[in-house]
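Ticket 4471: requesting a sanity check on a complex prediction with adenosine-5'-diphosphate. Repro inputs:
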Amino acid sequence: MTATAVAHPNIALVKYWGKADADLALPATGSVSMGLDVFPTTTSVTLTDRREARDTFTLNGRVVDDGPLVRVERFLDLVRGMAGSDARAAVVSENTVPTGAGLASSASGFAALAVAAAAAYGLDLSERDLSRLARRGSGSATRSIPGGVSVWHAGDDAGSFAETVPAPPMAMVVVTINDGPKEIGSREAMRRTIATSPFYPAWVSSTTETVGDMLAACAAGDFTRIGELTESNALRMHATIEGAFPPIRYLTSRSVAVFDAVVAMRADGIEAYATADAGPNVVVLCRPEDRARVAGALDGFGAVIESGTGPAARLLRSEDPGDHPR
Ligand code: ADP
Ligand code: DP6
Ligand code: CO
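Returned structure tokens:
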């Protein structure tokens, strides 16, 4: 049995940074994101012989045999548990997004894996349940199952899923400053922030409030308010992370230069707002009609890519080779 799925990264407007329960991957707060229509991940899951001791994972043509393989295996263990199967699998994935660079490869990666693995193991899951499953691979992947702008609810295992919310038309311009993997992955950085940053409790209480404000701004179609909340929440997250000990600083001087350029753009009358996930790369939120101008203004700060609002994760094909004898 082979199933292939595609999913896109999402960039948080209100960030998820901290778990309430690491085993179940329950977040400390809700979060809100915009799915991208660029940088898809395509993942195939092929069930192999039961007696094989391990799953295999090939990413961008290279066989993975370390931490990311273990993470994929743990995730497949969950799927096997749900399906009552002990079949091992061969996972083959292609990221078009840089891996581990703060552009949400873990989101597109585990959303695509959730959809492909569920189909390969014969599970027929609703969007909500796929979103809950993707959550167990990477928190941000929860929001890459539904399309468009989505909210990931804080809650218990049953209640912590993502769904699309109404929002005005929006676009993003991704400025890639460094496409290499970060030194400290999101998972570890999050743990250290919770354990050592004195700002973390304030981050949790303020972000809980911002999620409500952001959903209200989305429902009202208030792009300006969405942008202001987005930029503020990103800076608050980075301040919280920088407060960890030993400190973690994802933004470089070149990232900050993009934030400055966005402030200057606003002074010139273009409504643009900057955000950045756990990495040096900056993503600029703007109105769809301004995206080419924003991209033009940011050319020179890094590799610039424009994105609209992306689609939901989807199954591309699912086939049982046994049905098609050659
Ligand atoms: P990012 O900012 O890219 O999301 P993270 O530190 O959150 O960075 O996650 C990077 C990790 O996500 C990788 O080390 C790997 O474990 C996992 N990952 C990335 N892409 C895929 C994929 N296509 N399939 C499975 N796992 C993936
Ligand atoms: C800064 O989802 O990558 O991108 O749940 O441990 O896999 P794990 O972490 P991950 O963290 C994403 C953090 C962020 C903000 C966000 O996407 O909301
Ligand atoms: Co990630």
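Notes from triage: The longest helix spans residues 200-220. Leaving this open until the requester confirms.
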